[in-house]
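Reopening: STAS domain-containing protein still failing for me.
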Amino acid sequence: MAESQLTPETSLKLGGAFTIERAAELHALLLHELQQQTPEAISLEGISEIDCSGLQLLLALRRQLPTVQLIAPSPAVEQMLARVRLTSLLDN
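Support: Ran it again with your exact input. Result attached.
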């Protein structure tokens, strides 16, 4: 199940499967969360599975919020980004 949560530190924590089956739901969820507050960072540690649709969502986040850090990638996210040579998407 995909989830997101804003923490008091204004970090948005993403989790669950970022796959094509959930793309529309995830997009709506992210829009809703980002309308409430712009986080300082987005934590990717809870993403258990990611495919090209999930990657598109992360790329859209980076494009729309270029100053927001993408941090703490899960192993699934790290593998996907390494596979497509986009590890520069992350903020270390």
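The chain has a mean pLDDT of 89. If you still see a failure, please send the error message rather than a screenshot.
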